[in-house]
From TrEMBL, chains A, B:
Family, similarity comment: Belongs to the PqqC family.
Broad EC category: oxidoreductase
GO MF term (any one): pyrroloquinoline-quinone synthase activity
Organism annotation: Thiobacillus denitrificans
EC numbers for this chain: 1.3.3.11
Keywords, sorted A to Z: Oxidoreductase, PQQ biosynthesis
HAMAP family: PQQ_syn_PqqC
SUPFAM superfamilies registered for this protein in UniProt: Heme oxygenase-like
Identification of the protein by name: Pyrroloquinoline-quinone synthase
Lineage: Bacteria, Pseudomonadati, Pseudomonadota, Betaproteobacteria, Nitrosomonadales
Classification via InterPro entries: Haem_Oase-like_multi-hlx, PqqC, PqqC-like, Thiaminase-2/PQQC
Catalytic reaction annotation: 6-(2-amino-2-carboxyethyl)-7,8-dioxo-1,2,3,4,7,8-hexahydroquinoline-2,4-dicarboxylate + 3 O2 = pyrroloquinoline quinone + 2 H2O2 + 2 H2O + H(+)
Thiaminase-2/PQQC domain location: 26-229
GO BP, sorted A to Z: pyrroloquinoline quinone biosynthetic process
Function text: Ring cyclization and eight-electron oxidation of 3a-(2-amino-2-carboxyethyl)-4,5-dioxo-4,5,6,7,8,9-hexahydroquinoline-7,9-dicarboxylic-acid to PQQ.
Length: 249, 249
């Protein structure tokens, strides 16, 4: 008898993936402040300006996945993500795309287009966190990079929260700027359906693969958390209160 | 008449490079605490455990430089750095190398070898900062990667500080553990002489190149600062005091 544990059922595996929502950056102190309406105008601007680097890195990350993927069917689905973010002009449709929508969010919070696109407010550690995600997609097998996109499971909630709370908590933000979040509500749901279906199938071949998928999802959650840390440290005065509860032995 | 500014003299350029010491991580709150002797045993252990990831990444970074470098003379000099960190057994000499010395530093602060080498205490953002340095060396021309090593200009000071202060401020640390810092005092001085000579020559071809070298040095200073931020957040309880003095416009 093999001592290798049997794979979890797909339902059980999916529940374990969804269970990682506890590490989603919606729980990060900076995002808690954002949802509570206690960020200053400059802090919200700082978040939009820093997060822009994530936005412009997404299509580069997705292109890395395409460049590693020898499955045409997957490429035909996955390319939609690049089109969504970069925008496109195909067959009479002219979509300015998610990056342009984010620049307009920048304008809605009072930044100029150049403030956003110049990256002049980008904190180095924010860049390092985002680049970790791009480099993961460049260097790991495309199946792993697909699994790393599954933080989208948790994204509709945070987008909806912003749509619901900003108009009352940050009434000075031009409401047109919320277009990005509204658009992503639909797109993220569609994307994650594809990514989740693939991950549940591919990684359910063995328990070890399922555990690897959880590790990959955790890596991506860590990227988003580290991005929030970097933004927090660049936007907030902090004070060291004392040592953390024992980390090292 | 060209509007391109003339290159700085090599003396002036070197002074500008050295002037960047104001952003060196010796000024980071966590390192200030370390020098003041106020870190707890667990915090010092946390620093050693996290910083180990930097130590094991250095030879990978240097191998990336070799792999991009078509100049045999440079490779013959640069390979010494890999030998220093990985250790070697050549011509009857048996040098365990800097990584092994760092593991012994880990033991000297009360960690087990496995605590250090397993990376179980590594903060994700510490990994992202260090990986940014490795990826810079992988993707940029080797001449730029050489310039990025120039934070070694500032390293002897911080090593000497540890050698001087630890025996009284952290008397529980086994003194044999300080061997790494003592060894690096000599090695870093030799390495930086080579890197600095090359940078002053190569980047003095134009003012634009000199400015690029300063930008590269700043990138590497940002890597070390972000590493210290990651360690601080993983080892310290912090409190958000309020917004930073205006960052965004």
């Amino acid at each position: 008898m093999s001592s290798t544990p049997a794979p979890w059922s797909q339902e059980e595996f999916e529940a374990k993936l969804r269970g990682r929502s506890t590490s989603y950056h919606i729980h990060h102190p900076f995002h808690v402040m954002m949802a509570a309406g206690t960020l200053t105008r400059a802090q919200l601007q700082g978040w939009v300006a820093n997060r822009f680097y994530y936005q412009i890195s997404i299509p580069i990350k997705d292109a890395a996945i395409l460049s590693n993927c020898d499955d045409r069917e997957i490429r035909r689905e996955w390319i939609q993500r690049i089109l969504d973010h970069d925008g496109y002009h195909i067959g009479g449709i002219d979509d300015p795309g998610g990056i342009e929508a984010w620049i307009r969010l920048g304008e809605a919070v009072g930044l100029s287009r150049d403030d956003v696109t110049s990256l002049r407010y980008l904190a180095p550690a924010a860049r390092f966190a985002v680049d970790a995600y791009v480099n993961f997609a460049r260097r790991q097998p495309w199946q792993e990079a697909v699994a790393s996109s599954l933080t989208e499971l948790f994204a509709p909630h945070i987008h909806q929260q912003r749509i619901d709370t900003w108009p009352t908590q940050y009434p000075w933000v031009d409401a047109a700027g919320l277009h990005y979040f509204k658009q992503r509500l639909t797109q993220a749901r569609r994307d994650v359906e594809h990514g989740l279906r693939f991950t549940l199938d591919y990684f359910s071949q063995t328990r070890a693969l399922q555990e690897r998928a959880l590790e990959i999802l955790q890596f991506k959650l860590d990227v988003l958390w580290a991005l929030a840390d970097a933004i927090m440290l660049s936007q907030c005065e902090i004070e060291i209160k004392g040592p953390k509860a024992k980390v090292a032995p």
